[in-house]
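Final report, Chapter 2: Outcomes

The project's central promise was a pipeline that accepts a single protein chain and returns its three-dimensional structure in a standardized token representation, suitable for archiving and comparison. That pipeline is now operational. To close this chapter, we reproduce one record exactly as it appears in the project archive, with the input sequence first and the structure output second.
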Amino acid sequence: MIKPITPTENLLFSTIRLETSQGFGTGFYFLFELDNKEVPVFITNKHVINTSNANEKVTFSLHFAENGQPSKEVITVTYESEWIFHDKYDLAFTFANPLFEHIKRKFGKDVFVIPLTEDLIWDNERLKNLSAVEDVLMYGYPMTV
């Protein structure tokens, strides 16, 4: 059992492998705070989702929770989610709780995820301090040939 401690280990449980009729890609578990309420969502590129239909059967790959930690068991569950597409950018999201509730009903177990949050997004002041060359770390499930 992995006990995520470092930011890079936490990212292992913030990214979700998504498989759709379009292929597969990466989803990110993100927790927004709106009006003092937490709103958990999965965010991805809308090209990963079937952009002609907001309801898409998606296979999510997730870890079960075991004593507050991720279990070694990875679950893949197909679930029809309602996706909301950004009208201008290649972004889409779906609410996470309906999937979590479906998994709890079907398997009697909770999902282990670590949310990304808005405080991780750099503001313009911090972005100005970037140098011309920076290290980049990529997490996710890029399409392979």
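Archive annotation: The two ends are 31 Å apart (CA to CA).
This record, like all others produced under the grant, will remain available to the consortium after the project formally closes.
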